[in-house]
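Possible regression after last week's pipeline update?

I re-ran a chain I had predicted before the update to compare outputs. Posting the input and the new output here so someone can diff against the archived version. Not blocking, just want to make sure nothing changed silently.
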Amino acid sequence: MHRKHVYEEHAYVLDYLPYGRSSEKSRHLVVPTAQIMGERYFTLLEAELKVGATVAVPERIYIGRDRREKVDRIIGRIGYDQLTANAKAEIVPLIDELVKAQEKRFVDFFNNSQPVTPRMHSLEQLPGIGKKSMWLIVNLREKKPFASYEDIQKRTGLTDVKKMLSKRVMEELSGDTKYRLFTRVA
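New output (post-update):
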């Protein structure tokens, strides 16, 4: 199975390191660095900033392939364990905001999700959803697709869908899961 490369267009700053990371070997090549998280796939990245550019937490910046205002180059993908303490503190509220802002994308997940294996459905990967809840969701969406988080909660009896999705994204970023539903990692 060949997986196509996906690229982030925009990212949010999790931490700004004006003197780079302290773990870098060559201290004479100190460059301002930002730890960022992609808007679409929640990709954790480190970016080298252009000379004179500064960023603030949680500023939204362009990191796509066209001309970038603040980012000189993407250093590479990083894992959750490589984030600074400040970045780890910023990531949970940012994920909550992104899940709230991307309601259509996540509601579409509820409406279109498929099994990941013959015995396990991708809905079962969400915290708090077992076989009974999964079958309830599948049967309800066949009758009428879900329209919003509120609609999902009303019709299924699930308590906080946004919190459930945010928790799943955090599990994927911290490497606690086998299957990836919403993130791309290194």
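Follow-up from reviewer: compared with the archived run. The first helix runs from residue 85 to 101. Marking as no regression found.
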